[in-house]
Design a protein that fits this description.
InterPro entries: DUF7779, NLR-like, P-loop_NTPase, TPR-like_helical_dom_sf. The protein has 814 residues and is mainly alpha-helical. It has 38 helices and 8 strands. It folds into 4 domains: 139 residues, Rossmann fold, CATH 3.40.50; 191 residues, no CATH class; 125 residues, Tetratricopeptide repeat domain (Serine Threonine Protein Phosphatase 5, Tetratricopeptide repeat, Alpha Horseshoe), CATH 1.25.40; 151 residues, Serine Threonine Protein Phosphatase 5, Tetratricopeptide repeat (Alpha Horseshoe), CATH 1.25.40. The longest helix has 19 residues.
């Protein structure tokens, strides 16, 4: 079709873009021709660009994927190699740098929610063009309005669209009746061309039928002529292909985004209407029906992507025609089709892509409030999909909405509602809202026990969640007792090798680590990992990633730093390859691996991992999220190791305040942060302040966890260093002897924590005049360091040189 008019918006667009690197929005009502205007600009300006890339932005979940597929055109690895997130990130970086192309144009078509697009708009040497119905873009970036055609443009358009038998006067009458709306003009022209109907007959039908189509429910800002044109098309289409009209009714209940073509496949569901079932069982008839709808411009068919799409206004007008009984039947039918199209296996990339395609259609079809069991299971699967893809905040909002609606519709004891409540509690914990998660889960436990039974899988799953809540609140001893009982209940009810039992065993391993039983933790994590790995699907499993990382963490806590690095690198490769670089599980692995490399004496690798993880956490969550705080503290310890003491102190003080705000001042993790801060004070030459802070910290930890906990003993080791720096040698020796004795009993004679405290005790004994004892202890400790960490490890060299050893702490990610 030849382009008509639009001189004013095209000129305005060109002016805005010529000002330099720019982002410009074409905005206006639906159907006014924003997309065609963008296409025309691309056509007229193609010689000015080295690269033009068009992205359909109506479905936010697909925008990043479309961006990622640009990567090969920039000489970058595509999404099949690096994953969508990394490929899209590489594209954005290349566009910002103008490498390899400085003159590029990115078009985001149909971007109606500015918030969905902000982080994907590159700044750089090129241009970004956005089309949108949303007026909220105005004021945020340069914008050019697109309105209806001028009368002369409408006439020209129609006479080109209907070349036979439409004179200027008839075209003017028709254009005026259609309100010069380009979409209405296009649809009218299609009808006249396809059917041979005269403009006079069209106008007569238009006058006779408006009441059938327009009511108080029609969208504001649209002229009557589009809906009237729709009815005429339906009349003509129904005369020779009635199945196509019925298919359009089915499509009207989906969302306005592209509908996967294979949603329309044969199903034995009793909830699919007989006429639809007959069409779905006739592939040739189904293709013919879609073809007729496409010819009448009632659907947009994208054969390349195997999708069909119906304009939202067409959908609304079709739905308006349905009586209550038929509307209910069509919605039930579409709910059944969507449920049948949604895979139960949520882990494969194909399944995740399918859920992205289906998500925009669930709400329009009424899936959340459907009574169909398969539709309700689909709603719960969506919660799982959002969690598995790392969209915790979206999953929490979705669960909260389901709970509200299902409580009203189905009652408090509805089993699907109970599952949604359980998912909600888990997502609250993922978001760091620990108290809320605990209250939600504890409140639900009696109801689950009553409705489902004490050893029902859902009840057992909730018990595991409560154990995680206890850990998150710093109640480590309670969590250990609770999870010991929960694991036993899993074994009784499900068997020792069941995946849920292995998750319970994994949780128990975390409890043992938090209770300073590192070997017990390692044993449980190794068992859980090995058994689960045999069962894990070939595609990415967040659970397998978590088990793998916990095993590496327990190995590191046991003092085997090199082995922990090896395991952690393997786990990180799995997480990045199977889950993506910004998946929360991948970032947890990355942060733990940074700690292992720091302790192994590999600061460069540790720094790279920690900085990248912290940046991604800030993008994924916010500065106060527990995992962002853990990443910040990891950076603090790296800065201290590398001698950046002033910067380390600044970040440590800020992070400590945030820990207190997020967890509470008495939480063990806040005390861990305080201990790391105190260590920096001493290294900066202020042992008095370090002593005050460490003394208060140790008192808190003694009360919370007891002295024989590795958190407490690490602080005690540093406190002895404060005393030594203050000249209180006798007190330092007394404190050191007690700490060494306790560490030997807790983690063994040759654990790096024990060796650090022993080396410090040797230094303090020498200062106290016990030179023979000090020399023997120092030599044996240096030899132990060489055996455990290797002769060239930085700690071995420090111990040999008689340097003061420090004990830093990193709170585990729960």
């Amino acid at each position: 079709m030849n382009f008509i008019g639009r001189a004013e918006p095209l000129d305005g667009l060109r002016r805005e873009l010529r000002r330099g690197p720019a982002t410009v929005v074409l905005h206006g009502h639906y159907g006014v021709g924003k997309t065609l205007t963008a296409v025309e600009h691309v056509h007229r300006s193609k010689q000015e660009y080295d690269l033009v890339w068009w992205i359909s932005a109506g479905q936010p979940g697909l925008v990043r994927s479309s961006m990622a597929h640009l990567a090969p055109h920039l000489g970058l690895p595509g999404p099949g190699v690096t994953g969508i997130e990394d490929a899209a990130g590489g594209v954005l970086d290349a566009l910002r740098r103008g490498d390899p192309h400085r003159r590029w144009l990115l078009v985001f078509d149909g971007a109606d929610e500015p918030e969905d697009l902000y982080e994907l708009i590159p700044e750089g040497t090129g241009h970004v063009l956005i089309t949108s119905r949303n007026h909220r873009w105005a004021g945020r970036t340069s914008s050019v309005p697109v309105d209806v055609f001028l009368p002369r443009e409408s006439v020209e358009f129609l006479r080109r669209r209907v070349p036979q038998g439409l004179d200027e006067a008839s075209a003017a009458d028709l254009a005026g009746a259609l309100g010069h709306l380009p979409l209405a003009l296009e649809q009218a022209g299609a009808l006249l061309t396809e059917t041979g109907m005269s403009s006079r007959e069209y106008l007569r039908l238009l006058e006779r039928r408006p009441g059938d189509l327009l009511s108080q429910g029609h969208p504001p800002g649209y002229h009557t002529s589009l809906s009237a044109s729709l009815q005429i098309s339906l009349t003509e289409l129904g005369a020779h292909t009635p199945a196509a009209v019925d298919l359009l009714r089915t499509c009207s209940v989906f969302g306005p985004e592209p509908i996967p073509r294979d949603v329309f496949f044969a199903t034995r569901s009793p909830h699919v209407r007989p006429e639809t079932a007959a069409l779905l069982n006739d592939p040739i008839g189904l293709s013919r029906a879609f073809g007729q709808l496409g010819r009448y411009a009632l659907v947009k068919i994208d054969n390349a992507n195997r999708t069909v799409q119906v304009h939202s206004l067409v959908q609304k007008l079709i739905r308006w025609q349905l009586d209550e009984e038929r509307s209910r039947a069509v919605r039930t039918e579409v709910c059944a089709l969507l449920a049948a199209a949604a895979p139960d296996d949520l882990l494969s990339p194909q399944a995740q892509a399918r859920y992205l395609d289906l998500l925009p259609h669930l709400e329009p079809a009424g899936v959340p409030l459907s009574e169909l069991p398969e539709a309700r299971r689909l709603s719960l699967h969506v919660l799982s999909f959002l969690y598995l893809s790392g969209n915790y905040a979206t999953a929490e909002r979705h669960a909260r909405d389901l709970i509200s609606r299902w409580t009203t519709a189905f009652g408090e004891d509805d089993p699907y509602l109970l599952k949604a409540r359980q998912s909600y509690g888990n997502r609250l914990r993922d978001l760091g809202r620990y108290e809320e998660a605990y209250r939600s889960n504890i409140a639900m436990l009696p109801r689950l026990r009553e409705v489902l039974g004490p050893e029902h899988p859902d009840t057992l799953s909730l018990l595991s969640g409560i154990g995680a809540d206890l850990r998150s609140q710093g109640r480590f001893r309670e969590a250990l007792r609770h999870d010991t009982q929960t694991h036993r209940a899993h074994v009784r009810a499900l068997g020792a090798d069941h995946s849920a039992t292995l998750r319970a065993l994994h949780n128990l391993g975390i409890d043992h680590a938090l209770s300073s039983d590192f070997e017990g933790a390692r044993k449980r994590h190794e068992e859980a990992y090995m058994l689960y790995k045999r069962q894990a699907p070939a595609a990415g499993s967040p659970n397998l990633a978590a088990f793998w990382n916990s095993l590496a963490q327990s190995v590191r806590l046991s003092g085997n730093y090199a082995e922990a690095c090896d395991l952690g690198e393997e786990a990180l490769a799995y997480g990045r390859g199977q889950l993506g670089r910004e998946h929360p599980r991948t970032l947890r692995i990355q942060l733990d691996l940074s700690v292992a490399h720091r302790l192994s004496g590999n600061p460069d690798r540790a720094r790279t991992l920690a900085r990248d993880a912290h940046t991604r956490y800030l993008r994924l969550y916010d500065v106060d999220h527990p995992e962002t705080l853990a990443a910040a503290l990891c950076l603090v310890n790296l800065m201290r190791v590398e001698g950046e003491l002033d910067r380390a102190l600044s970040v440590a003080l800020d992070t400590s305040e945030r820990y207190a705000r997020v967890y509470g001042s008495d939480h063990p993790y806040h005390q861990v942060c305080a201990a790391d801060t105190a260590l920096i004070h001493r290294l900066r030459g202020d042992p008095g302040r370090a002593h005050l802070l460490n003394t208060a910290t140790l008192e808190h930890l003694d009360a919370l966890l007891g002295r024989d906990h590795h958190f407490s003993l690490a602080v005690a080791n540093n406190l002895a260093g404060d005393l030594a720096a203050m000249g209180e040698t006798a007190a330092a020796v007394e404190s050191g002897r007690d700490t060494v004795r306790r560490l030997r009993a807790l983690v063994g004679d040759e654990h790096p924590m024990t060796l650090a405290a022993t080396a410090n005790l040797a230094s303090d004994l020498a200062a106290a005049g016990e030179e023979d004892r000090a020399r023997d202890l120092a030599e044996s400790t240096a030899a132990s360091y060489a055996r455990v960490l290797g002769p060239v490890h930085v700690l071995t060299r420090a111990a040999t040189a008689g340097e003061r050893m420090t004990s830093d702490l990193d709170p585990p990610l729960l």
